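so i finally got all the pieces together for this one. its four components total, 1269 residues if u count the protein bits. some of the lines might not be protein, just check the labels. i wanna see the whole assembly predicted at once instead of chain by chain like last time, that was a mess tbh
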Amino acid sequence: MRHNGSYSASPRIGLIEWLPWLLGVAAFFYLPEYLSLGARILVYILYALSVDLVVGYAGIVTLGHSAFFGLGAYAAGILSAKVGVTDPMLQMLVAIASCALLGAATGALILRTRGLTLLMLTLAIAAILLEVANKATSITGGADGLSGITVAPIFGLFRFDLFGKTAYWMCLVVLFICWWITRRIIYSPFGASLVGIRENHVRMASIGSPVSMRLLTAYTLSAMLAGVAGALLTQTNQFVGLNVLSFESAGELLVMLILGGVGRIYGAFVGPIVYMIAQDQLAKQFPEYWSLGIGVLLVAIVLFARGGLLGIVDLVVAHAKRGKSAFAGKEAP
Amino acid sequence: MKSRTAFKIGLGLVASVLAMSATAQTVKIGFISTYSGPMASLGEEMERAVKLYMKLNGDKLPAGVKVELVARDDGGPNPDKGKQLAQELIVRDHVNFLAGVVWTPSAIAIAPLVTEAKVPFIVMNAGGSVITTLSPYIVRTSFTLWQAAYPMGQWAAKKYKRAYIAVSDFAPGHDSEAAFEKGFVTGGGEIVGRVRMPVSNPDFIPFMQRAKDAKPDIVFSFIPGGVQSTQIMKAFGDLGLAKAGVKFVGTGDIVSDEELPNMGDAPLGAVTAHHYSTAGDRPANKAFLAAWHKEYGAKATPNFLSVASYDGMDAIYTAIREQNGKIDPDQTIAILKNYKNPNSPRGPIAIDPETRDIIQNEYIRETRRVNGEMANVEIETIPDAKDYWKVFNGKK
Amino acid sequence: MQELIASLVSVAFHGTAYGMILYVISVGLSVTMGLMGFANLAHGVFAMAGGYLLTTAMDSWGVPFPLALVISFVLVALGSVVLERLLYARLYSAGELAQVLFTIGLIFIATAVARLIYGTLQQPVHLPEYMKGQFSLLGRDFPTYRVFIILFGAALVSALWFGVERTRFGAMVRAAVDNRAMAQSVGIDTQMLFMATFALGSGLAGLGGALGAEIIAIQPSYPFEHLIYFLIVVAVGGLGSLRGPFVAALVIGIADTACKYWVPEFGAFLIYVATILLLLWRPAGLFGRQA
Amino acid sequence: MSVVLETRSLCKRFGALTVADHIDFQLQAGARHALIGPNGAGKTTFVNMLTGRLAPTSGRIFLGGEDVSTLSQRERVRRGLGRTFQINSLFRGLSVVDNVALAVAERRGMGGRLFRSASSYADVRDEAMALLASLGLAEDAQVNLANLAYGKQRLVEIAITLAMKPRVLLLDEPAAGVPSIETHRILDVLDALPAEIGILIIEHDMDLVFRFAKRITILVNGATLLEGTPEEIAADPRVREVYLGERHD
């Protein structure tokens, strides 16, 4: 099922859309030793969701979203390690604000361009942040990473523990809030207009849509989401390293997203879950074959299954439905 | 309904299979090192040493006690990966010891975890001075960069006046820069220039050119050993610094023993300070080398990472023996604080009870051709070298 | 003063050598992107393959250095044709996102294959004796091999330009870059042309990777690590142009070396900032046609 | 009658090539005006300058008496300038009704609302549905546009533009690609367009032009050759000269 803002489709949250949250809560009770992996997965889901908003919905092909993920992570980390602000909510707010600023400022400059130029600009901006983080050793820790991050208990009550219980809940709740907001945005007239821009930006401009402004808004919102994800990563790891800003990790995130399916919200859920669990189980034993497999999978998806895993599910469901359509009533549009 | 029950059972199964913990008499050692990425050779040197020690010393364990090594790859200097692996080793695998760790940043990132989980952590390579101060559960059997670079500076100051410093831009590099500078400047030398180079895969030529153009008497360098040491040696040679009368000095990393055969003549005459060289003329070292060659072939060469890992395992085995296989973290640390080995391949070593850091001999070595092979020949010994950073700064 | 001149000469020399390598690697990317409109992020794979072929040819097959360079060029060009026919060609009309993801997938595969065959270590290049040491000119020493790179690069660039300006093949490429539909309508077999250009561009990348193995270390993460520099050369130079990337590569090579020499504390920061400013000023690059 | 769209001495050059050469043009309110000319005469360039997609090299454009020469596309749309495209320019991944609703929403100025869901704006949907019904597309409202027959896609093209409630409508070859036996459906739709809209049509199908237009301007080599009623144009010998061969290729 694709989730698009539409003037004729109901935005009600379907039953199946509650499934991930059910699983999320169940995992806490059934897999207590895997909570830190779980928290990391939740963070990457949020990160993927933010990328889906720009790449999948607004159609902005960016390779530089790690800039915002990294900025959020470093903002929270620096605030704690260098300024001494340990309150997680405050860290989160500062991360969001700085990503909003960077997103708006860079977006205003680069979203006028398209194609290779845009790709290059997003890449270069992420590269600049990486270089700054690498060289401003006294603030960021440089290649050593930023350690000495302490995070105070949430609301003074819940301490971040070794097993990652608190971190897991924090990530789950924050992801839930961000998902809810993102979903509303996608189903709003604004979200519909983003899809319009993705499908045909020339025509959107000709019907009087402020295309650049819409893209800038989407870009900034997405930057903020990525910033939240980054800050969460810092708080769960209590450490920030340069690789949050690296091109490899940006590429890896795109892999997760395309694996799940682009432009359909839940692709951002399915992708990281499948990818990271597989990685946890397989990558340790077969590091070489792991990246070989990822590469082959990516090529295969691009060539044969552009919609990712969820796209395949759609096809199967559509096929099954067609089989019984003589009895089934109206088919969902 | 049915499917939900099935789901619950499935989850439960997965959880219980994965949660199978260590049996009573198995001591688990979580070992983190680098097996992939450009620095993969480092992990191999360490793991070979650990496995060799375990193979040769199985009989030194108390009856019924087994040691299990759980090895993990951090893929290079990725502190967050290292930290994540440590967390998993502690929480999922319930290890009794953490060991290994090539990179100082990773060790720093892991420190708070071992404090919270009370898991003794034996650092087998990472040489940043600060590490042992970050947790009471950290013991180091390798070295610190201050230990090598400070005496190197003192030694160089007696012969040369002008030094150029070129180090990798991360904590160990910064440490060695500060340590060399302190030793060299206190001894009356002058630093004529400095540069910090990227940590992975740089082209050293522009940096060495810059060093050459500053016209120093010596270039002091630290880079994370392995293949990079060959690269920097090549750059030093190609730019003709030696021909221009510039001496290359550094910590032992720039002339790692296992890379010496690849370097050609470039390192001839380089002077380095280090705690281990395969050319070290000690019975313990000879025995160690013999065992190594027997196990891994005549061409395989151990290096300082191997020795630190070998000694680290000896420390762990000592702790296991003295507690008869029942590992209590605090008691372990108490035992390790007083660990001594007069017959390590690198000479006598001991853990400083005050700082939990290593005390060992530092050797000033010159790279020479011995019997047609390049070797780091020990020419001076500085006995019982501590971590000078802690000495000067009163840190524990 | 004397010292300043000495440093300027060093920077210009090493920067030019680096720039030559960047150009030989990237020029193919510029032409294929301009010609086929394909966002090929995996171009660095060909350069890496060239580097590995060089070291393998020399160390395992005992091939002398000059012949090893030829082998790198030829084998990479041939290999790229297979890839082009089997995979790339299916995506010429696909969207940019699909192309980007596809080529990232290729990078993952290449990285893994390189690791499986060669391990993770940087490949040492054992240059022949006559390429080692220094070359004295005007009282200064220059590393011989880098002098060779500059001379070889210059010769290659001249040959390439001459070829594209003066041969029939070159004329067809230029026509197709200018206007594909037009070229097709006057009877140019664009499919063959794509294939040949792709092979040439990839072969050059392989040659550049081999030639530059001393400067840009050959190891599995090569295609990821240096991608941004290859892309900068193309984006700054302008798509589909031969001269643009040359100017861009030299400027970037020299600027990068200058930064390392004088302000190493800034790293590549200044290069990236300059790239962004330039692309904002001229989105199609220095020599590209502005939309 | 009043002038709703006017250009004064509009020029466009690409390097040495002049594609619009001092064009003075007036469109009356409620006009049915056609712009014709041989291929490469600069018709599409002219339309692109009117809408603001291309900036003229010199000259001015007035919309309802206001100088809009430097305004963005969006500003001109808001002032009542609508256009259709020669090659379908639609939102292929969306349903037909959403194609139109996007335009309705933008006109009403709520296309950028962030929080309430799009489907809660029933008035937007109803207006879009009504418009589709008026073009005979009510049945197809929920169909994915990419699955719609080509001729109907041409109608959606017009529907989107009408949703903007334009005062001036620029139709760029509305019948392009539609088999000639079906152009009558397009013509029916055009005939039924609200009388108050000033329409400028660019079309190669001369039957359609002569049946629809009340006034015709001929553009040759970027300059106005002639303007007049269909009868005057048909009678002018210069037209035959320009079009000789053109209509037979």
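Chain D has two domains: 3-93+164-244, 94-143.
Residues 3-93+164-244 of chain D form a domain with the Rossmann fold fold (CATH 3.40.50.300).
anyway lmk what u think
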